[in-house]
Target: LysR substrate-binding domain-containing protein
Amino acid sequence: MDLRNLNYFQVLAEELHFGRAAERLNISQPPLSRMIKQLEDEFGVLLFERTKRKVLLTSAGAELLVQTKQMISQMASIKKRLKIVGKGESGNLRIGYVGATMHTNLPNLLNSFHENYPEINLNFEEQPNLNLIQSLNNGTMDVAFVRTWLNPKNLEEKIISTESLIAVLPMKHNLSNQKMIKIKDLENENFISFARDCGPTIFDSFLELCSTSGFAPKIYHQATQLNSILRLVECGFGISLLPESISENNTLKLKFIPLHKKTKNIPLIMLYRKENANPSLAHFLNSFSN
Model:
């Protein structure tokens, strides 16, 4: 028994006329009669009552018709599913990130991809920079997002966006009412910054801004988590220079003030292994090319 035989059976069961069924199947009547006889021999039951005037389904034939419709429908679903999987429109993508990337437009970009490819499951994992590189290289992760240039071997780096640093001050700071701040005006401040091994590009850009303004910053504390920096600033332990996207949707008692010297040098970078054979990755990379 194969699906073609069952398809012939279903058409005859719907038409209850060998001539019309054969015409619908675009074959002659004898091959159709042979197919039906083969099915009856295989199942060991009569599927049709045949007289000179009419063709009727037996009770066994009626049951087979129900089962046949289900099998044909299931096979159509399987074919459709396999086509989706084969095109990479279904599957799994393992996405790594450092925490600071979640304060950019990245979550919106990921959500947009998810809406366009709902059959691709996105599995997220937060890790430090070096762990992300290791996971990409050993194949346990498909793509990763970082905020610093790492120049890793065997991996591709694609810049998604860039932004400037912004001054982050406590609400009651004496400069909190300024519309714009000169870096030189921050010379005597205590700074709360990222630890360099967590955010080298952010840390180095912060140092460079201060250096070009003629002073070395007084770093009161270096933190590994963005929320730690923001809470310490909120409580008055110091100020910080952070990527401007940090100011979006922030509910802490902080003031975010643009700097006089605006340089878009803080990147959001996507890392991936070019040889990765995951078909869903191609769709993901294309979505970030638009």
